[in-house]
Design goal:
It is built from 20 helices and 39 strands. The strands form ten sheets. It has a seven-stranded mixed β-sheet with strand order 26-30-31-35-34-33-32, with helices on both faces. Strands 5-4-3-6-9 form a five-stranded antiparallel β-sheet, with no helix packed on it. Helix 7 crosses helix 8, helix 11 packs across helix 12 and helix 19 packs across helix 20. The longest helix has 19 residues. The protein is elongated, with a radius of gyration of 39 Å.
Length: about 800
């Protein structure tokens, strides 16, 4: 919310603080300040000048030769603007003046004629808004007066929390700032207006959807003269980012910024049947809004309609078919309170986020709708109108119930952490406009209608703390209260898993639980997905079925930044098409195996890096034995984003746990990864369930010597090490504690279609020292069993 400091001080005459002090006070009260923009800077050397004479430049048809007075003397100035006129007043910058853009004014000669200064446009003065010629000033301004207090202002941009819709106006901000500076704030008294005709003579209004529109007010004004707004309104709106349209539209925007109430004006002649109906839209009805866009409406959308169809999207935007035009003479004004949820849902679905919807989504105070309408009526009569209806339409269907909250001194002090007398709370709440009654230990607080965000005692305590000042709370460590917490199986494994992968060089990522369906399709991950009915954006419109796309985006960004080693993991929830949730542990890696070092040769990471890390993880977690099974050599429907020739699935007792493989080359190209990458994905929920079913035990290391035997076996080249390892575990030889593959050989010294695997086997006993004879017997019995079972031959 952009607030004008000049406007703020008109509402709070006692406010002496400067813009920086106001901004600092708001920060101390818990608000975030986006910017503080001084629009008077650079205007101090510019004054009000009056053009006395205008003549054509003798050497140029498009230039004018002007005699301009600053109240003390007359200057000759050459001007190129087409709107300069004798008798009018404009900003005058004389020799030595420095404009906001840094331009220093000097005497100069233009086409043989000396010019002593410049008549300035809004762009040259650094003012917002469009620049059409030199900036015309009001005739009432004294000649020679500095223009900084007239044209300048300071704008503070405050990030208003979503629950504080009352602060989306200068009245609301003035009320808040008055309480912070211990000043008194009174809303501007709005005088009533009278007329000669009844509103019923011009328009018939009915509210059919009272749930969507709890209050609706309207008034008619005849004899309207649409034209430019007064300059003071144009300037105030432009400082706050609003472009001047005409005196009617500008009045609705002005009152909205003042009171926080969005308002709208219809051209009465375009309302068919002289009717206004507040109702739900018809199914698949199309409607063209003021911005020229056509929208298809749904039955739950709230509209303002005439006898034939929609003329406005309630609370969002008016229609092209009823807008105020240059020849408009009769206005129908609207002020209302609409259901925030309905406005938010329609605005987001149609992509129409307007100043009006922004306020209605955060709740407009229904109690002050009528006063906002009266304020708008008075302003239009002042700038554009002639005769209002003597009465107005006002239907208030659902008045909010009065809210009262009990505040105790005991709870206040306990939550703040230091003793706060209830008398302090009474004073603070009173400055904020809250009425309080009660004893010295308990207060009964009546919540005003503009603070519907307050409903609990803790809400009041927060208000007391904010306005008393966070600096008043002493910095103390909270008391430590220890209690035993029974953790779930999954959570007991989560922290060790995170520590393990972090210790192996993987960086943990945390992404949204939502993802882009286009990215999923690009990664060959087909649906169905669970789509959100009201997503934040199209890029976050489905619940993610896998962590693959999120990790892929992190890897891609890392690679584009030139990182040699890229390893990421994430342990988060994924969702199926029915919304069922499960925990997934996934990782992606690629690039160099190590950072550059003098003692190591550069080497690329491969699938075996992931296999080794996962084996260490399963071993450390006590989840063994895990079987590794290659996928089909044909393109897999189960993992289409992985290369089927370099992908293995993980099983524990025939229960699938996940997959590890190289990312498919097509995916690497479409996502511009630059180098090959590998991905693993584990069903962490299933893994935790299996872990919980196992009986876990711990044993110390053997203090006795181990016996190591190497074994070289010749076998069919299609036989995998995993099959040999599984067979050894099946035979379960005595004292065997470890089997490790350390060499693979295929060459001329072996028959065609054969390969040799070299294994290292470790035998150890925890109770005695093994002899060579004992180990040899067990070892060669194992070789015989492998020969019979798998057809391998000792090399």
């Amino acid at each position: 919310m952009k607030i004008s400091v000049r406007w703020l001080k008109e509402l709070l005459p006692g406010l002496k603080a400067g813009p920086k002090q106001i901004a600092d006070k708001l920060v101390q009260a818990g608000f975030e300040i986006e910017s503080v923009e001084d629009r008077e800077k650079g205007l101090q050397s510019v004054v009000v000048g009056q053009v006395l004479e205008v003549a054509r430049h003798p050497q140029a048809d498009r230039l004018s030769l002007c005699k301009v007075s600053d109240g003390n003397q007359t200057y000759q100035i050459v001007c190129g603007a087409s709107n300069v006129a004798a008798g009018k007043k404009y900003p005058l910058a004389l020799e030595g003046a420095v404009l906001p853009g840094g331009l220093t004014i000097k005497k100069t000669t233009i086409r043989g004629i000396e010019s002593s200064g410049m008549l300035c446009s809004s762009a040259e003065l650094g003012l917002p808004g469009e620049s059409h010629g030199i900036y015309e000033l009001e005739d009432s301004l004294p000649v020679g007066r500095p223009i900084a207090p007239v044209l300048g202002d300071t704008v503070i941009d405050v990030a208003v929390p979503p629950n504080r819709g009352d602060l989306l106006s200068h009245w609301g901000m003035a009320r808040e700032i008055a309480a912070l500076f211990k000043l008194r704030f009174s809303e501007k008294k709005i005088s009533s207006v009278t007329g000669s005709f009844s509103i019923k003579d011009e328009i018939k209004i009915s509210v059919e959807d009272v749930r969507g529109c709890p209050r609706y007010c309207s008034r008619v004004i005849r004899g309207v003269r649409v034209g430019p707004s007064p300059l003071w309104i144009v300037r105030r709106l432009s400082h706050l980012g609003f472009r001047s349209i005409n005196n009617v539209v500008d009045a609705t925007n002005y009152v909205m910024l003042e009171t926080g109430h969005p308002l709208h004006a219809f051209d009465k002649r375009f309302l068919k049947g002289s009717r206004l109906i507040i109702r739900k839209a018809a199914s698949s009805q199309t409607f063209e809004t003021l911005d020229g866009s056509e929208h298809t409406l749904l039955p739950d959308d709230l509209i303002i309609a005439d006898a034939e169809g929609a003329v406005a999207l309630a609370g969002i935007m008016g229609g092209k078919n009823s807008e105020v035009r240059e020849d408009t003479t009769v206005l129908v004004l609207e002020a209302a309170s609409f259901d925030p949820a309905r406005i938010r849902k329609t605005a987001r679905r149609l992509g129409l986020h307007t100043d009006s919807s922004h306020r209605f989504e955060r709740r407009v105070n229904p109690e002050t709708v009528k006063s906002a309408l009266n304020r708008l009526t008075g302003l239009i009569l002042e700038t554009a109108g002639e005769e209002p209806s003597r009465d107005s339409y006002d239907r208030y269907f659902q008045k909010p119930k009065p809210c009262r909250i009990r505040l105790s001194e005991e709870n206040l002090s306990a939550l703040v952490g230091t003793k706060v007398p209830l008398s302090v709370a009474r004073t603070v709440l009173g400055r904020m406009g809250f009425k309080t009654t009660g004893s010295s230990k308990n207060l009964n607080v009546s919540i005003p209608s503009f603070r519907a965000d307050l409903s609990r005692e803790v809400d009041l305590i927060e208000e007391v703390v904010r306005h008393r000042g966070f600096a008043e709370i002493p910095s103390l460590l909270p008391p430590s209260r220890h209690r035993l917490v029974r953790e779930g199986t999954t959570s007991r494994l989560e922290d060790p898993a995170r520590r393990f992968f972090a210790s192996h060089g993987f960086v943990e990522t945390i992404h949204y639980s939502f993802c882009d369906p286009r990215e999923l399709a690009k990664a060959k991950i087909t649906g169905p997905y669970l789509s959100l009915s009201n997503p934040l954006s199209e890029e976050l419109s489905v619940l993610r079925p896998t962590l693959f796309v999120s990790l892929l985006s992190a890897f891609r960004k890392n690679r584009k930044e030139g990182k040699l080693v890229s390893r990421f993991f994430e342990l988060r929830s994924v969702y199926d098409s029915e919304g069922r949730e499960k925990k997934s542990l996934a990782g992606i890696y690629g690039g160099a195996l190590f950072e550059k070092q003098w003692s190591r040769m550069e080497k690329e990471a491969d699938v075996f890096l992931g296999k080794g890390v996962l084996e260490d993880f399963f071993k450390g977690a006590g989840i063994e034995p895990v079987d590794w099974k290659g996928t089909s050599s044909q393109p897999s429907q189960k993992y289409p984003w992985l290369n089927p020739y370099q992908t293995v699935e993980l099983f524990l007792a025939d229960v699938p746990l996940g997959v590890l493989g190289k990312i498919h080359p097509e995916i690497e190209d479409s996502f511009e990864l630059g180098r090959q990458a590998f991905f693993f994905d584990l069903d962490f929920s299933k893994m935790a369930e299996l872990w919980n079913q196992k009986n876990h035990s711990y044993s110390s290391y053997s203090m006795l010597p181990r016996v190591i035997r190497d074994l070289a076996l010749v076998m069919d080249r299609n036989l995998q090490f995993g099959e040999i390892e599984a067979a050894i575990k099946k035979f379960n030889p005595p004292w065997l504690t470890s089997v490790r593959l350390f060499d693979v050989y295929e060459g001329d010294q072996l028959p065609a279609g054969k390969k040799s695997l070299a294994l290292s086997l470790v035998y150890e006993d925890f109770s005695k020292t093994l002899t060579d004879e004992e180990v040899n017997k067990v070892h060669f019995d194992l070789v015989d069993q492998l020969s019979r079972e798998l057809g391998v031959v000792l090399r």
